[in-house]
């Protein structure tokens, strides 16, 4: 048995549900640090940025599951829903922190920011794209929509991931390395998908022809 | 040939090794007596006169000022400067002053500091990223230095350059900005009494992360105009290229006056968050020219401040 197979067998015994409990804990920890003045001079920005970053990292993690299975044989598919929902959770708390703690629900200011600042517009777009995905992340929705439609709908993840990365690149001053690394990583993960898909199409065409 | 300010000091008084080593005492203004004393942290105090230009606002904490700032030569994170600036050698330090001046040359910092009047200037500080602080700088008017070197009549602008030393300023090894960092002012802005060169804060010598040993402070402009760790000042007749203006002319104007009405693609400048207020600190409205409108608005009479942001 290869190492990958052994890992896959081991993972069968690992349930996905603890992710829903452990996953949100860093939010509590971050707010605790902020409230006890351990996040430096600007705790609001620190929390906001950290939450956004974790959200983006989870999106990347979610995008890696298919290529990992295809190219490395590692099967993490059963954790994908939890990872996706956690990503949505972090993006939502990131947004709520901006709305409630940062701008203190100054709606005129918020609206102006969304409309006038491209990086916020893109960030909001990313959030809105994730919304239908989060809502349909349950078995009932899969049954109701049918797997094909559900799969198509969930391709919105790709656009949301790009929106998140561009949001990050645009937000920082100058061309900083870290956001660009995320953008490059996400673009790569999406390009890999295009290759997977085209191969699949070729394969099925060949089969039919054969 | 190294030119010096006209002072009653002899050549030998200006650049001996002790001057570099004991710069702290020199700044302290303790004079000859200090040469006999032993250097120690307590001697880092700078005696400075109070100034009528100081705000009455409560200064931000020393910790906030020295651990939360931008100094991309040491990294882009807010705590990078305080983590990595230690590596910087700030003594000896000289500033090259050239261009349209009567007495160009490379001036030793110790020599410059001997001929200026140190003042404490408690200024508002407003970052383009919409956070703000109140900082008790110690420094002297830039005008003093410019007058000493003799600005020629053709000069219209002053250009500044930060040190370029990737061995110590490690983020300079990356092509993050077009190093060295450059800034510039119009001559009348440079000559304004609010414009200072600072060598300390909170009564002590300038922490390295805040731009040691000498930096510019222009309190009515966004923080990035106040260039740190200056090694060159050039008087010129053309508007100098400045680092951020080159990177994004739409976002970072040459003037960069604090202006709540001119929004930035990334940040509305209408409000600001005073740093140090904790998690629930309220934003407050940003003031035009960062609250120095009365003092500096006349510099821009008749100018379109949206066009010339």
Automatic annotation (TrEMBL), chain B:
GO biological process: protein repair
Reactions catalysed, as given in the entry: L-methionyl-[protein] + a quinone + H2O = L-methionyl-(R)-S-oxide-[protein] + a quinol; L-methionyl-[protein] + a quinone + H2O = L-methionyl-(S)-S-oxide-[protein] + a quinol
Keywords from the named record: Metal-binding, Molybdenum, Oxidoreductase, Signal
Binding site for Mo-molybdopterin: 69, 72-73, 127, 162, 210, 215, 226-228
Alphabetized Pfam families for the sequence: Oxidored_molyb
Gene3D superfamilies the record matches: Oxidoreductase, molybdopterin-binding domain (3.90.420.10)
Cofactor: Mo-molybdopterin
Domain Oxidoreductase molybdopterin-binding: 89-244
Enzyme superclass (EC): oxidoreductase
Entry's cofactor comment: Binds 1 Mo-molybdopterin (Mo-MPT) cofactor per subunit.
Role description: Part of the MsrPQ system that repairs oxidized periplasmic proteins containing methionine sulfoxide residues (Met-O), using respiratory chain electrons. Thus protects these proteins from oxidative-stress damage caused by reactive species of oxygen and chlorine generated by the host defense mechanisms. MsrPQ is essential for the maintenance of envelope integrity under bleach stress, rescuing a wide series of structurally unrelated periplasmic proteins from methionine oxidation.
Membership in a protein family: Belongs to the MsrP family.
Assembly information from the UniProt record: Heterodimer of a catalytic subunit (MsrP) and a heme-binding subunit (MsrQ).
Protein name stated in the entry: Protein-methionine-sulfoxide reductase catalytic subunit MsrP
């Amino acid at each position: 048995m290869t190492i990958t197979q052994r890992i896959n067998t081991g993972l069968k015994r690992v349930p996905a549900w603890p992710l829903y409990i452990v996953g949100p804990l860093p939010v509590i920890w971050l707010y605790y640090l902020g409230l006890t003045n351990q996040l430096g001079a600007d705790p609001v920005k620190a929390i906001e940025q950290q939450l956004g970053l974790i959200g983006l990292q989870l999106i990347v993690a979610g995008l890696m599951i298919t290529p990992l299975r295809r190219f490395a044989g590692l099967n993490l598919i059963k954790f994908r829903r939890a990872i996706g929902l956690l990503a949505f959770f972090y993006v939502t708390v990131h947004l709520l922190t901006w709305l409630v703690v940062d701008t203190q629900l100054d709606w005129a200011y918020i609206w102006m920011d969304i409309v006038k600042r491209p990086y916020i517009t893109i960030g909001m777009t990313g959030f809105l794209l994730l919304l239908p995905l989060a809502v349909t992340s349950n078995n009932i929705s899969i049954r109701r929509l049918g797997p094909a439609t559900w799969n198509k709908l969930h391709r919105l993840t790709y656009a949301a991931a790009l929106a998140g990365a561009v949001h990050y690149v645009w937000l920082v001053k100058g061309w900083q390395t870290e956001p660009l690394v995320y953008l490059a990583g996400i673009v790569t993960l999406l390009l890999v998908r295009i290759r997977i898909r085209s191969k699949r199409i070729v394969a099925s065409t060949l089969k039919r022809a054969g | 040939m190294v030119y010096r300010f006209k002072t009653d000091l002899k050549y030998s008084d200006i650049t001996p090794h002790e001057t570099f080593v004991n710069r702290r005492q020199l700044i302290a203004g303790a004079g000859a007596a200090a040469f006999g004393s032993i250097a120690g942290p307590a001697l880092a105090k700078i005696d400075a006169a109070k100034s009528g230009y100081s705000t009455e606002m409560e200064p931000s904490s020393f910790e906030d000022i020295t651990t939360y700032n931008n100094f991309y030569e040491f990294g882009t994170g807010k705590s990078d400067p305080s983590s990595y600036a230690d590596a910087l050698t700030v003594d000896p330090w000289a500033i090259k002053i050239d261009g349209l001046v009567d007495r160009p040359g490379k001036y030793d910092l110790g020599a410059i500091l001997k001929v200026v009047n140190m003042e404490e200037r408690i200024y508002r500080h407003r970052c383009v990223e919409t956070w703000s602080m109140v900082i008790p700088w110690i420094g002297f008017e830039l005008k003093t230095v410019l007058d000493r070197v003799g600005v020629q009549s053709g000069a219209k602008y002053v250009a500044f350059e930060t040190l370029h030393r990737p061995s110590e300023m490690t983020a300079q090894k990356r092509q993050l900005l077009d190093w060295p960092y450059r800034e510039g002012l119009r001559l009348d802005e440079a000559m304004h009494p609010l414009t200072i060169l600072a060598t300390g804060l909170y009564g002590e010598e300038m922490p390295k992360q805040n731009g040691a040993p000498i930096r510019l402070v222009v309190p009515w402009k966004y923080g990035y105009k106040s260039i740190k760790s200056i090694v060159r000042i050039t008087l010129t007749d053309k508007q100098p290229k400045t680092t951020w203006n080159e990177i994004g002319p739409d976002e970072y104007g040459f003037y960069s006056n604090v202006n709540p009405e001119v929004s930035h693609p990334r940040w509305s400048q209408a409000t600001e968050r005073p740093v140090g207020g904790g998690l629930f600190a309220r934003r407050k409205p940003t003031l035009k020219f960062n609250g120095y409108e009365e003092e500096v608005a006349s510099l821009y009479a008749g100018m379109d401040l949206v066009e010339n942001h």
